[in-house]
């Protein structure tokens, strides 16, 4: 049995969930909130972060590693381009989402506005939020706008690149972020298309019930 461990609201857990769903796999999804990570959870995720993943007697942590494993164990449909350069570009966009967008959208916006106040009893820091929206993100959105040439970011196919970028923008929306379609028209249309894919839309719909409403 395959098991995904990690909580709704995490862009990294969502990334793995949509990979599992796109590949049509059956799995159990156990909600694990890592604040704090228990010693039991650290046995499968030594850094104490979500997601973790269990396949029978095998355990893995980190969304990128789990997705790479799933591609090897369940190659169809492929979610990584086969051309070497496009494959590497897909990994680059995955990195851009995970290490570029996530600390800003996740840390300064989503965590700051939603998780901190709701779960950690930490007050919302408006200055930090505005810094993300006004200073940090616009050049990153400019970069992405310039990278979108067709429907997808890499290899002319829906791939891990699109998943890793689009999942961050789900948190952006949950945190109250709005994208200016007149400034970033290609990015706006691209995200609408990607989020409307049936598996992505279904994953978002579940979380919308938890994070889509009132913001503290
Ligand atoms: N590189 C990791 C990042 C995972 C990550 O940062 N997860 C956050 C939640 S979105 C977490 O578990 N944070 C708990 C902590 O840092 O202690 C991945 O891709 O899985």
Q: What does the model show?
A:
The protein has 216 residues and is of the alpha+beta class. It has two domains: 2-73, Glutaredoxin; 84-211, Glutathione S-transferase Yfyf (Class Pi), Chain A, domain 2 (Up-down Bundle). Helix content is 59%, strand content 7%. The chain contains eight helices and four strands, in the order E-H-E-H-E-E-H-H-H-H-H-H. It has helices at residues 11-22, 39-44, 63-73, 84-120, 126-147, 160-174, 185-195, 198-211, and strands at residues 2-5, 28-30, 52-55, 58-61. Strands 2-1-3-4 form a four-stranded mixed beta sheet, with helices on one face. It is globular, with a radius of gyration of 17 Å. It starts with a strand and ends in a 5-residue tail after the last helix. Bound molecules: glutathione (GSH). The site of glutathione (GSH) has 12 residues, from helix 3 and helix 4.
Please write out the topology:
Layout: E1 2-5, H1 11-22, E2 28-30, H2 39-44, E3 52-55, E4 58-61, H3 63-73, H4 84-120, H5 126-147, H6 160-174, H7 185-195, H8 198-211
Parallel strand pairs: 1-2
Antiparallel strand pairs: 1-3, 3-4
Bound molecules: glutathione.
Glutathione binds next to helix 3 and helix 4.
Q: Which kinds of small molecule does this entry bind, naming each only once?
A: glutathione
- Gyration radius (Cα, Å) is 17 Å
CATH architecture of the largest domain: Up-down Bundle
CATH fold-level topology of the largest domain: Glutathione S-transferase Yfyf (Class Pi), Chain A, domain 2
Q: How would you describe this structure in keywords?
A:
alpha+beta, 8 helices, binds glutathione, 216 residues, single chain, 2 domains, Glutaredoxin
